[in-house]
Protein backbone atom coordinates (compact mmCIF):
# COMPACT_ATOMS: atom_id res chain seq x y z
CA UNK A 1 0.00 0.00 0.00
CA UNK A 2 2.85 2.40 0.83
CA UNK A 3 4.25 2.03 -2.67
CA UNK A 4 0.95 3.18 -4.16
CA UNK A 5 0.79 6.22 -1.86
CA UNK A 6 4.35 7.07 -2.87
CA UNK A 7 3.47 6.79 -6.56
CA UNK A 8 0.46 9.06 -6.00
CA UNK A 9 2.84 11.67 -4.63
CA UNK A 10 5.70 11.45 -7.15
CA UNK A 11 4.70 9.70 -10.37
CA UNK A 12 2.88 11.37 -13.24
CA UNK A 13 -0.58 9.82 -13.29
CA UNK A 14 -0.10 8.39 -9.81
CA UNK A 15 -0.83 4.86 -8.76
CA UNK A 16 -3.77 4.50 -11.13
CA UNK A 17 -1.21 3.95 -13.87
CA UNK A 18 0.73 1.39 -11.81
CA UNK A 19 1.82 -1.96 -13.15
CA UNK A 20 3.08 -4.74 -10.87
CA UNK A 21 5.61 -7.39 -11.82
CA UNK A 22 7.11 -10.23 -9.82
CA UNK A 23 10.82 -9.87 -9.16
CA UNK A 24 13.39 -12.08 -7.49
CA UNK A 25 13.16 -10.27 -4.14
CA UNK A 26 9.72 -8.70 -4.34
CA UNK A 27 7.09 -7.01 -6.43
CA UNK A 28 8.14 -4.17 -8.71
CA UNK A 29 5.49 -1.49 -8.80
CA UNK A 30 5.95 0.94 -11.69
CA UNK A 31 4.17 4.09 -12.78
CA UNK A 32 5.17 7.24 -14.63
CA UNK A 33 8.83 6.27 -14.84
CA UNK A 34 9.05 5.55 -11.12
CA UNK A 35 9.78 2.06 -9.81
CA UNK A 36 9.35 0.79 -6.24
CA UNK A 37 10.49 -2.58 -4.95
CA UNK A 38 8.15 -4.12 -2.37
CA UNK A 39 10.13 -6.96 -0.76
CA UNK A 40 8.14 -10.15 -0.27
CA UNK A 41 9.32 -10.46 3.33
CA UNK A 42 8.31 -6.90 4.21
CA UNK A 43 4.88 -7.36 2.66
CA UNK A 44 4.35 -10.63 4.54
CA UNK A 45 5.37 -8.99 7.84
CA UNK A 46 2.96 -6.12 7.18
CA UNK A 47 0.10 -8.50 6.43
CA UNK A 48 0.75 -10.61 9.51
CA UNK A 49 0.79 -7.55 11.76
CA UNK A 50 -2.07 -5.87 9.84
CA UNK A 51 0.13 -2.82 9.25
CA UNK A 52 -1.41 -0.98 6.31
CA UNK A 53 1.77 0.85 5.33
CA UNK A 54 4.39 -1.56 6.63
CA UNK A 55 6.05 -2.39 9.90
CA UNK A 56 9.25 -0.35 9.77
CA UNK A 57 10.25 3.24 9.30
CA UNK A 58 9.33 4.42 5.81
CA UNK A 59 12.13 4.88 3.31
CA UNK A 60 9.72 6.25 0.70
CA UNK A 61 7.76 8.98 2.51
CA UNK A 62 9.01 11.37 5.16
CA UNK A 63 6.92 12.45 8.16
CA UNK A 64 5.77 15.63 6.43
CA UNK A 65 4.37 13.63 3.55
CA UNK A 66 2.70 11.17 5.94
CA UNK A 67 0.97 14.05 7.75
CA UNK A 68 -0.25 15.46 4.44
CA UNK A 69 -1.52 12.02 3.42
CA UNK A 70 -3.31 11.59 6.74
CA UNK A 71 -4.94 15.00 6.40
CA UNK A 72 -6.09 14.12 2.88
CA UNK A 73 -7.73 10.90 4.04
CA UNK A 74 -9.31 12.68 7.02
CA UNK A 75 -10.71 15.37 4.74
CA UNK A 76 -12.15 12.70 2.45
CA UNK A 77 -13.68 10.94 5.48
CA UNK A 78 -15.30 14.16 6.68
CA UNK A 79 -16.71 14.91 3.24
CA UNK A 80 -17.89 11.32 2.81
CA UNK A 81 -19.48 11.43 6.26
CA UNK A 82 -21.56 14.42 5.21
CA UNK A 83 -22.74 12.57 2.11
CA UNK A 84 -23.42 9.50 4.23
CA UNK A 85 -25.61 11.61 6.52
CA UNK A 86 -27.79 12.37 3.49
CA UNK A 87 -28.09 8.66 2.61
CA UNK A 88 -27.11 6.43 5.55
CA UNK A 89 -28.33 3.33 3.68
CA UNK A 90 -25.41 3.48 1.21
CA UNK A 91 -23.10 0.56 2.17
CA UNK A 92 -20.41 1.61 -0.31
CA UNK A 93 -20.39 5.11 1.15
CA UNK A 94 -20.06 3.69 4.65
CA UNK A 95 -17.17 1.46 3.59
CA UNK A 96 -15.40 4.37 1.88
CA UNK A 97 -15.69 6.63 4.92
CA UNK A 98 -14.47 3.84 7.21
CA UNK A 99 -11.51 3.17 4.92
CA UNK A 100 -10.63 6.87 4.84
CA UNK A 101 -10.67 7.17 8.66
CA UNK A 102 -8.60 4.01 8.91
CA UNK A 103 -6.04 5.22 6.36
CA UNK A 104 -5.89 8.65 8.05
CA UNK A 105 -5.06 6.97 11.36
CA UNK A 106 -2.54 4.61 9.78
CA UNK A 107 -0.80 7.46 7.92
CA UNK A 108 -0.39 9.63 11.01
CA UNK A 109 0.88 6.55 12.85
CA UNK A 110 3.58 6.35 10.16
CA UNK A 111 4.58 9.95 10.91
CA UNK A 112 4.78 9.06 14.61
CA UNK A 113 7.36 6.37 13.82
CA UNK A 114 9.78 9.22 13.06
CA UNK A 115 9.35 10.82 16.50
CA UNK A 116 12.25 10.04 18.86
CA UNK A 117 11.46 8.39 22.18
CA UNK A 118 11.31 10.37 25.41
CA UNK A 119 11.67 14.11 25.88
CA UNK A 120 13.75 14.37 22.71
CA UNK A 121 10.63 13.66 20.66
CA UNK A 122 8.32 16.22 22.22
CA UNK A 123 8.85 18.61 19.32
CA UNK A 124 8.32 15.85 16.77
CA UNK A 125 10.63 14.27 14.21
CA UNK A 126 14.19 15.53 13.81
CA UNK A 127 14.61 18.04 11.00
CA UNK A 128 16.78 15.55 9.11
CA UNK A 129 13.75 13.25 8.89
CA UNK A 130 12.14 15.64 6.41
CA UNK A 131 14.13 14.73 3.30
CA UNK A 132 11.62 15.77 0.63
CA UNK A 133 10.72 19.27 -0.47
CA UNK A 134 7.05 18.43 0.12
CA UNK A 135 7.72 17.22 3.65
CA UNK A 136 9.97 20.16 4.55
CA UNK A 137 7.42 22.62 3.18
CA UNK A 138 4.66 21.05 5.28
CA UNK A 139 6.79 21.27 8.41
CA UNK A 140 7.95 24.82 7.69
CA UNK A 141 4.37 25.95 7.08
CA UNK A 142 3.01 24.47 10.32
CA UNK A 143 5.65 23.08 12.69
CA UNK A 144 3.00 22.65 15.39
CA UNK A 145 1.40 19.89 13.31
CA UNK A 146 4.43 17.70 13.97
CA UNK A 147 4.75 17.72 17.75
CA UNK A 148 4.27 14.36 19.41
CA UNK A 149 1.21 15.71 21.25
CA UNK A 150 -0.43 16.91 18.01
CA UNK A 151 0.31 13.70 16.10
CA UNK A 152 -1.01 11.59 18.98
CA UNK A 153 -4.09 13.82 19.22
CA UNK A 154 -4.75 13.43 15.50
CA UNK A 155 -4.31 9.65 15.77
CA UNK A 156 -6.77 9.47 18.66
CA UNK A 157 -9.28 11.65 16.79
CA UNK A 158 -9.12 9.55 13.63
CA UNK A 159 -9.47 6.30 15.57
CA UNK A 160 -12.37 7.68 17.60
CA UNK A 161 -14.06 8.94 14.43
CA UNK A 162 -13.79 5.45 12.94
CA UNK A 163 -15.18 3.88 16.13
CA UNK A 164 -18.04 6.41 16.19
CA UNK A 165 -18.83 5.66 12.55
CA UNK A 166 -19.07 1.94 13.30
CA UNK A 167 -21.15 2.59 16.41
CA UNK A 168 -23.58 4.88 14.60
CA UNK A 169 -24.01 2.54 11.66
CA UNK A 170 -24.09 -0.79 13.49
CA UNK A 171 -26.84 -3.05 12.18
UniProtKB/TrEMBL annotation:
Name of protein: Uncharacterized protein
Organism listed in the record: Nonomuraea fuscirosea
Amino acid sequence: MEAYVYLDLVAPGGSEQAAVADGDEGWLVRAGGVEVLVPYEAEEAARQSEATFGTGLSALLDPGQWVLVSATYASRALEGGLLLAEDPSDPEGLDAVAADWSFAADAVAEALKFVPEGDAGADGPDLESFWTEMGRSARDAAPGRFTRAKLESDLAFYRQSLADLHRLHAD
